[in-house]
Specification:
The complex is a heterodimer of chains A (214) and B (93). Chain A has 214 residues and is an alpha+beta fold. Chain A has five helices and ten strands; from the N terminus they run H-E-E-H-E-E-E-H-E-E-H-E-E-E-H. In chain B, strands 3-4-5-6 form a four-stranded antiparallel sheet, with no helix packed on it. Chain B has a two-stranded antiparallel sheet with strand order 1-2. The chains are: A alpha+beta (214), B mainly beta (93).
């Protein structure tokens, strides 16, 4: 009988192939713009009645406050809590194992008629930094992303280039984009294409950008 | 493109929404007792007014919640938006 081959599966960012390209882009456009891949995190989708004791019970488990206002997020000890809807939150953790994170949150929510589902593989993260970051996103998104209307602590589910994304505002010109892995390459291609505008010398004589693929 | 004021997310682009037909269509209290014609009226027949019309809309690219909006069918202006009425609508959030 043939010996059974075993291999350890390691998590890999869906945009791993773009890592070098984004590094070259960020190096050429610094400090106006930097694009990088976000880390892999455990994520659960929490559904629970906001009026009952569910949110308080979940806060005990995740160790931080859940956002109370629409389209806002709060920081957790090792992650984030995003308000996706009236009775829906997205909870992430860079420290927890996805299965444990789902089990712990679900146990707390189920006691109040809610539930939590592991969605770690549903979305992948991108990080945009620099003075041009907000303007770059407006090339494919209709939301008003100026700091006054989209300040630190805001988040929004919307469309970027017809792909459903969650935009998350960190402090200053630091934005996070959560997108489904199957749409991630499309979103990055659009962002990279739009970023050509921010080259110090965008004239054709200056030659192709270091990140452009032939 | 016009903005639609989602009761939860605030004003968003029309592209993010999907249409759900006439609002406040009550489910028959005793469906088995209806004649075929009465059942067909419930399933297929809808008002088509010229002017304000109460409709269901879903913010499908945002919070994914259903709500009721009153739209003027002549101008496509949204006159008011509100949460989905508890009674009568076929869709649930």
């Amino acid at each position: 009988m043939a010996e059974i081959q075993t291999a350890t599966l390691t998590a890999r960012h869906p945009l791993e192939g773009y890592r070098d390209l984004l590094e070259a882009l960020s190096a050429e456009l610094a400090p106006a713009l930097a694009l990088e891949l976000g880390g892999l995190v455990a994520a659960v989708d929490l559904r629970v009645d906001p009026a009952g004791g569910g949110p308080a019970a979940v806060e005990q488990v995740v160790g931080g406050p859940l956002p109370t206002r629409p389209d806002t997020w709060t920081a957790l000890p090792a992650g984030q809590a995003l308000r996706l809807g009236p009775d829906e939150w997205l909870l992430t953790s860079a420290a927890a194992q996805p299965e444990d994170w789902e089990f712990a949150v679900d146990e707390a929510a189920a006691a109040h008629g809610g539930m939590a589902v592991d969605v770690s593989a549903q979305r992948t993260a991108l990080r945009l930094r620099g003075g041009a970051a907000r303007e770059l996103l407006t090339t494919g998104c209709a939301l008003d992303l100026r700091p006054r209307s989209f300040p630190h602590g805001r988040c929004a589910q919307t469309l970027f280039g017809q792909a459903a994304v969650v935009l998350v505002a960190h402090g200053g010109d630091d934005l996070q984009v959560l997108v489904r892995p199957s749409f991630a390459a499309h979103v990055v291609d659009r962002l990279v294409d739009a970023a050509t505008e921010y080259r110090p010398d965008p004239s054709p004589e200056s030659g192709p950008a270091s990140w452009e693929t032939p | 493109m016009q903005l639609i004021a989602c009761p939860w997310c605030g004003p968003r682009e029309e592209l993010e929404f999907s249409y759900g037909g006439q609002a406040h269509v009550a489910y028959p209290s005793d469906p088995a007792a209806l004649t075929d014609e009465q059942w067909a009226r419930f399933v297929f027949f809808r008002d088509n007014p010229k002017g304000p019309f109460a409709e269901r809309w879903a913010h499908s690219a945002g919070c994914r919640r259903w709500f009721t909006a009153v739209r003027d069918t002549r101008t496509h202006r949204f006159l008011s938006v509100g949460p989905l009425a508890a009674s009568g609508s076929g869709a649930t959030s």
